[in-house]
Amino acid sequence: MTAHLTQKENFLRVARGEMPEYVPVSSYFGPNAPLLTMADPCILGSFRGPGGGVDPWGVTFVTGEEINFAALPKPNDFILTDVTKWRDVIKAPDYTGFDWEAAARDDRKKYVQDPDQTAFVLSGFADLFQQFIGFMGFTEGLCAIYEEQEEVEELLDYMLEHSLYITKNLLHFYKPEGYYLLDDTASKLNPFISPKLFEEIFVPRYKKCLDLVRDENIPIFYHNCGRCEDLIPSMVDIGVNVWDPAQVENDLVGVKQKYGAKLAINGGFEFRMPSTWPVVDEEEVREAVRNTFDRLAPNGGFIFNGMLTSLDYFDPKVQEVNGWIVDEANRLSKTVYK
């Protein structure tokens, strides 16, 4: 098959619920430029980066080699211990004098090396669950959600004003090609809170930000790791177009059957490190990729993304196996929609 669309044009077709020319392959291990940026605007700082830092609310994020330099809130250093006292502790950032035009220009140049291949997709900092848990930690934060729901909701409304400010300016000055909501609300096995509470507390507030994005006809990306399929229906209802990383703990075939191209699945693949490691059957790896395409690629709505289950990205054997995965996915990509 001869492809006529660039990888970005083809990718954005999927994000808009349209039929692509070929299956997009989203991977940082292949030779191509990334499909999308998934970046924070510089006004938020670099706290989620490999060096950690302090987020706009004052939460310290730390990192380390053992977590592959992903940033996490500093353990046992919570800024809020009693949710009923949040008004004394949580203060909205002051961005007086911030130059949004210069920031948009610099961020686009920083994050998009090839605008013909990479979509400019940015965060509006609407990840209210993660921000709240960053204030209190999981134990106290989850207890507060169940025991002091009214106080939590008032705090979330205060936080939402900041998210709306970021989102409005992002849309006006940055002109992004996609907007992403990064809010991990599930573990490997189940959501952290019930779908009922999720719909009551978080969904209406997400919607206020996402409505702004939908009004601009910009695709909405929802990042939620783990088994979060119980939360997906309400997110589709408020406008989510693409779900990543769509991990294999979820019933991905069932989700695809229910929503079709309305909700694009970005992910869908994982090759578990075998007990024989570092001995790996290359054909077994490639067959796993083929099986994923067979299950999730038909009729569109699928972006392949996945790798070996190892965070040791620089191990030569890990790189070799991930290379097989990307190679097989790229080979299949243009054979599905003939």
Please give a quick description of this structure.
With 338 residues, the protein is an alpha/beta fold. The protein is 41% helix and 11% strand.
Strand content: 5-15%
In angstroms, what separates the terminal alpha carbons? 7 Å
Overall strand count: 9
Instruction: Give the low-confidence spans.
Output: none
Task: State Rg.
Answer: 20 Å
Global morphology: globular
Instruction: Summarize the biggest pleated sheet.
Output: 6 strands, parallel
| Sequence of strands across the biggest β-sheet | 4-5-6-7-8-9
- Number of helical runs? 11
Structural class: alpha/beta
Mean pLDDT score: 95
Set down the secondary structure blueprint.
Layout: H1 7-15, E1 53-54, E2 60-62, E3 72-73, H2 86-89, H3 100-111, E4 121-123, H4 128-136, H5 138-147, H6 149-174, E5 178-182, H7 195-215, E6 220-223, H8 232-237, E7 242-244, H9 252-259, E8 264-271, H10 282-296, E9 302-308, H11 316-333
Parallel strand pairs: 4-5, 5-6, 6-7, 7-8, 8-9
Antiparallel strand pairs: 1-2, 2-3
